Amino acid sequence: xxTTSSPPIxxxxxxxxxxxxAQSPGHGQNQTQSQTATETPKRPAARLQWFSVRKELxxxxxxxxxxxxxxxxxxxxxxxxxxxxVWHPDIRIDNTGDVDYFQTGMLVDRATxxxxxxxxxxxxxxxxxxxxxxxxxxxxPHKFAEAFYTAFTTPPQQRDAMWLHQSLWHSxxxxxxxxxxxxxxxxxxxxxxxxxxAIARLFEPFVEFFRYxxxxxxxxxxxxxxxxxxxxxIAIIVIGTLFQQILIVANTTRKLEYSLLxxxxxxxxxxxxxxxxxxxxxxxxxxxxxxxxxxGWAWTYLIVAELIGVSSGITFFITQxxxxxxxxxxxxxIAVIGIIGLGTDLVLAQLGKRLFPWERTLKA
Length: 364
Description:
three-stranded antiparallel sheet, 16 helices, 3 strands
């Protein structure tokens, strides 16, 4: 009888076989189940990733949340405008009945309408009819969307008034010159105050006092000194931003690592070179970010500033449209200001990434 002899087993194979643990037939299945059980909790963890404390969001999550920040207010506006049983405090008259002072299309509050209906019924006269509506100062979203086109194409009510695009350009010029003047004065003072404590002690107490004074309170004084045209408007915006700017820039300068200043002074850097070669380059990315924030601050003073002296710019357009109760145009003009401001900020943010690419490297 022939027998087949197995090949000889080497020492390494025998050692590996002895070291391998014995596996039961169901071991592979149990291992798969344990891996599945281990991986299962990862799904809810991924869902809760958006709510992790100070954890960087993915680009997709940032985009979705950014869109939702605009869609949520729009959804609330649509509900208030188009769902009849949500708010709608007024009644739009469709049929005046026998009420003398009612007119078709007129808006009256519900209490007055109900009282007149009851009066007509008691007198056996024709009762007025109408449907629930919102006040004239809250147009529905579709009217607001139409106003984005009509506000730019409809000529102004007054013959000598400016078109919307002309008013916007005038306001942009006022903001530009006001913020430029404020930056030319505020940035150097803020940097020096943040670098030298003696100068900070000399300037900051008065700046702290002055920043609490409301800028519009200086309107009459600005008109008396600078006239009734753009001068006082620019001055009000400068007053509103300058003193905040000095304090913010000074605080940003103080965040610069003192070891950099010590190293520069040890190497014999003079005072002026210390500012131009060490301090300013060291704070430049943060200073740029501060200016973006302060530019938005300047926009918030625009409406008040343009009411001083001769009303002009986008403020004149808004007040004229409100006078004729074209509130959809008012909302459109306000939204255009926000779009210009947000668009400018996004452009400056992208420009900042190109000017200071090392900032992204440090964050990563």
